[in-house]
Amino acid sequence: MQQHTTKSEQIILKLLHEFRGMTALQIAQCISSKEQPKITQRSSIHNHLKRLKSKKLVSGKKIDSNTRTGSVYFLSSNGFNYVKDLLNIEFEKIGSGYTSKILGDSFSDLSYEVYKTPLEQLNHHLLFVDSLIAIKLNEQLKAIQTRNSIYASRLYFQQNGQRILRPDGEIEDLESGDTFFLEIDMGTENYNQLLAKFENYNEYFKTLSQSQLPMGIFFVTDSIKKAYGFNRRWMTVLSSFLSAIDAKFLESVNLIMIPIDDFSESLAFEVNKQNLYENYHNNIFSTQTQNKNKFLATIEHSHEYRDPNFYIYQIGKSNYQYVYISIAQQFESLVYGGYLNFVKLANSNPQNESTKNLSKLGYSQTIFRRNTSEHLPLNFAPEHIPNEILAVLQTIQDNAKIIILND
Prior knowledge:
By secondary structure, the protein is of the alpha+beta class. Helix content is 41%, strand content 23%. The strands form four sheets. The protein has a seven-stranded mixed sheet, with helices on both faces. Strands 13-14-15-16-17 form a five-stranded mixed sheet, with helices on both faces. It has a three-stranded antiparallel sheet with strand order 1-3-2, sandwiched between helices.
């Protein structure tokens, strides 16, 4: 290690290694643990970066974007090797790539060609970095560890050969062991391209056991998409997902689309969903009894909190109805995929003493949400969804009731 660097410079070098390139603002956010660092902190970062560039450890590139200004900074080849010495990454070491507040870092001895910053997809990369920083800044997510696409990619094998799944990142909750894939959506992939992406996911899921399936896939968009065209984009993403993914995975793997501004809160909601079911259990049942519906039975299933249990309620004196109850985010697929599984299980559920002499009224869904819209975005394009799925989804629009829960 020939170059001399200060402690502050070493912190910046380690961050640039972890994130594979960052803006000065992103570096300041990590160091200050604040979304909006002080101007003096940002100025200090710029001064350190100038010195690191003069030492040939860091390079920079002007950002060509309508949404960002300034430059992105990344390790030079010399800087990359310098940081491997700083981090004591042993020769030919194989690491998981995960970084976390609890377990620290586990990096491999990569070549610079494999590691280097993806400058050809710079806006995509910086939005990915924003996602990881959002997790770091959220105190509810201390038990979360993350890794980028270099480490999250995996080979899987089929009869006709091997394929590779390349998510943009991967998230693991150290407390539960639950995992999520992370995809950065710049809105550039059309329906057919998204369909191919999810078909690849579907083929990969076929190689896993039920317990190995991820809990979900987060599709993170930029903040502008939140204000312009988010619902339309969600329809394209969701319809391709529902068309590509097998029913047995639709009932288990949740697709969540979220703008970057709300991502960390959305992730915290998802990893805490089991506790939410327990906390709001009484609220869920009281909602039905307020409607003077009598609880009759529960249809059990094995997916833990991925879906709640399904319930049968007596409606009036002579009818009964199957009720699917979920705690959900505004833009998530389990409201649809879980409902499809619910209908399948309800249809195969044998009539028992509780429903004897009663007439079946069909199905309904009660969706509990926190601090989000009371509406379902259900403007599906029929040509994008198989008719059998579309028919069932139409019943959601006809029968779904959304209730906003208070914290």
